Amino acid sequence: MARTGMERWRNRLALVTGASGGIGAAVARALVQQGLKVVGCARTVGNIEVNVLALSICTREAYQSMKERKVDDGHIININSMSGHRVLPQSVVHFYSATKYAVTALTEGLRQELREAQTHIRATCISPGLVETQFAFKLHDKDPEKAAATYEHIKCLKPEDVAEAVIFVLSTPPHVQIGDIQMRPTEQVT
Q: How far, in Å, are 7, 83, 156 from residue 183 at the CA level?
């Protein structure tokens, strides 16, 4: 059943990156349930630099496609991280935090660029804290016990929680610009 405010997106096209699992898969499912046509893509690249480079390329191409098709009411939503707003005192995540700070800056820069171009296309970041995905297993690939423990000490967000935030952002009236949603598990401290 479509959420109030989602009617205008019915039969519109959504590109979801990372759609093979975790948050991307949950977002793709939620958008389909709301009546959107979803094109999902995924990567097998393990490099964390993809956070910046792939996001930049996908954003450029999405915006160019909207301009060519005269779409003036689209929405670009970047899934970021709370790590784009603070740096944890763990050396293993410093570079990851740097890439997520870049996502924060790129999304805000895009929002400003869209205003300068006098479009009604919106740009939003959704910045979740700890989400129960395969991320910790990639981060701690040599220590699966440590990775598993990441998700055991608190009740984590689920990918569906992040997907719900995407639906919320899309369902806001066209005159409402949400810049960033920062969300984390209730029990998460940082």
A: 25, 11, 11
Condensed to tens digits (0 to 9), the pLDDT of residues 39-80 reads 999 876 556 666 799 899 999 999 999 999 999 999 999 999
Q: Single out the catalytic residue among 63, 96, 101, 151.
A: 96
Confirm if 102 and 52 have CB atoms less than 8 A apart: yes
Q: What is the pTM of this model?
A: 0.90
Q: Is 63 a catalytic residue?
A: no
Of 143, 159, 128, 52, give the one whose Cα is nearest residue 92.
143
Task: Report whether 171 contacts 4 (CB < 8 A).
Answer: yes
Distance CA 10, CA 8 (A): 6
| CA distances for 172 relative to 48, 111, 118, 168, angstroms | 32, 16, 20, 7
